[in-house]
Design brief:
Largest sheet: 5 strands, parallel
Order of helices and strands: EHEHEHEHEHEEEEHHHEE
CATH architecture of the largest domain: 3-Layer(aba) Sandwich
Low-confidence stretches: none
Number of domains: 2
Number of helices: 8
Oligomer: single chain
Strand order of the largest sheet: 2-1-3-4-5
Bound molecules: calcium ion
Length: 227
């Protein structure tokens, strides 16, 4: 899942982005409202973390702009101002949730998961495809009882394919949701990661789950269960 973090305090933004990346989210950063609006136009985000105190236009105005432009991406507002009128302003501006600084990182992760569940993603936190189970809370995957040792990025790719199991997913869609803006579209990184995932998923002699559709992309599905 790919997030946009809008925060002008660079150190705080970098630290938060690092923590989120360690939890397998792809994170892009924007330092102010105009940069945020531009990035939302250029990229596909699953969630926007929006600081209220921004230079120039504040987070409420940025959120209103995004909603006026028809953006429906969930917005979680972050602010140091813990007052009921600010919460109301945030929700009225079109935010989906509101978290006060300083916040507990685990609570932020839980709220992100909750907002992502409201989207087209499945409600059940455990995705099952044949004997593969993907625990979207614990960020772990198993085939049968076998726990699969995955890096954060491998997990992110597997979860994305798992959320769309049975559907062919193109490289552009994968890079849009699993990688951040530093992804080089001319690299073969996605192929490399798919190969690694296959080795880990199927390395113990299990039935193949990830198939390549030449010229189209990849599909995670049981047997010939392809839409
Ligand atoms: Ca700020």
């Amino acid at each position: 899942m790919r997030l946009l973090l809008v925060e002008d305090e660079r150190d705080a933004a970098q630290m938060l982005a690092k923590g989120l990346r360690e939890h397998s989210y792809a994170v892009d950063l924007a330092e102010d409202g105009p940069a945020a609006v531009r990035k939302v136009h250029e990229n596909t985000y699953d969630l926007i973390l929006l600081d209220v105190m921004l230079p120039g236009k504040d987070g409420f105005a940025v959120c209103q702009d995004l909603r006026r432009l028809g953006q429906t991406t969930p917005v979680l507002m972050l602010t140091a101002r813990d007052a009921v009128e600010f919460r109301i302003s945030g929700l009225d501006a079109g935010a989906d949730d509101y978290l006060c600084k300083p916040f507990d990182f685990q609570e932020l992760l839980a709220r992100i998961r909750a907002l992502l569940r409201r989207g087209p993603a499945l409600q059940n936190p455990v995705l099952r495809i044949a004997d593969l189970s993907i625990d979207t809370h614990g960020h772990t995957a198993r085939r049968g009882e076998r726990l699969i040792d995955l890096t954060a990025k491998e997990y992110a790719l597997l979860e994305y394919l798992g959320r769309h199991a049975g559907r062919v997913i193109g490289r552009a869609e994968i890079s849009a949701h699993v990688w951040d803006e530093d992804y080089d579209p001319f690299s073969n990184l996605i192929e490399v990661y798919v190969q690694r995932l296959r080795r880990k998923l199927e390395g113990a002699g299990e039935a193949p789950l990830i198939r390549t559709r030449r010229g189209e992309g990849y599909v995670l599905a049981e047997g010939n269960d392809v839409l």
